[in-house]
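Shipment paperwork, digital attachment
Item: protein structure file
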Amino acid sequence: MSVHTVPVGVPDAGIRLDRWFRRHYPALTQGALQKMLRTGQVRVDGKRAEGSTRLEPGQEVRIPPLPDAPPPAPMAQVSPADEAMLHAMVLYRDASVIVLDKPHGLAVQGGPGIKRHLDGMLDALRFGAEDRPRLVHRLDKDTSGVMVVAKTQAAHEALSRAFAERDLDREYLALVWGLPPGASGSIEGAIGRHPTDRKRMAVVTRGGKPALTHWRLERAFGTGAALLRVKLATGRTHQIRVHLSHINHPVVGDPVYLRRIPGAASALDKPAREALLAFPRQALHAATLGFRHPDTGQQLSFAAKLPKDMAMLLEGLET
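Attachment content:
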């Protein structure tokens, strides 16, 4: 393989460069990586980098020629139940990409206290000598909807670049408290760590990254709640949830950004109000995803139906 550059994808935000190599080039030995770093063969955005360098989406890593990879590692063991669930999630599959409809409650990647996650199950979609599918982007654990994973390194690079450059179409459906003014609007505000709660994100005046969210009203339930179709112009952590909370229309059921009963709840009748307050997760769904096929350039578009719990909640609000 010749010298080439690889864009850093959203799932790798904040990861160390040496761990990024272990994740995407598991056959590369630590000694070989250290030599490439020491001799300046690896660069990030054209600059020499160390193993401890933290990466951000959109940056480009220069990859020198690598040693030939050994035969693929044995597939990880996935339980029959999880394998069946994973196959049921598939909306589309070809030699380069797999499009999934992720259910709510399934984490995309592991972390503290998370042992069962999508990344740990992807071997179930690897056959024979195929590469192990790679994550391209993330959805929050309790957000449902369309995701794409790459089956080849080339597809991963192309799709990661598309996500970093926002060269794709992606829309969400969000059920929020209250009724925003007008039929559509935009929310602009830099997003960074909350100044006093480091586990949360917030709209900040210093140190954040620019963020822009567009919304359109799909359905109003009086003035107490509304279903919005949301489109991201940027891709920040928890962006939709943070921006909607910032304009005082937090997502129903959000365990992080909804800290008290909204005033809009008083505009609903008791059954509707109680149903919304009892909803156990953020009512947020990745409804559509469109992108250019990394091999052919053909424009593809996929949609995922609302999950049953969210559809039933909306149905109850309409009665």
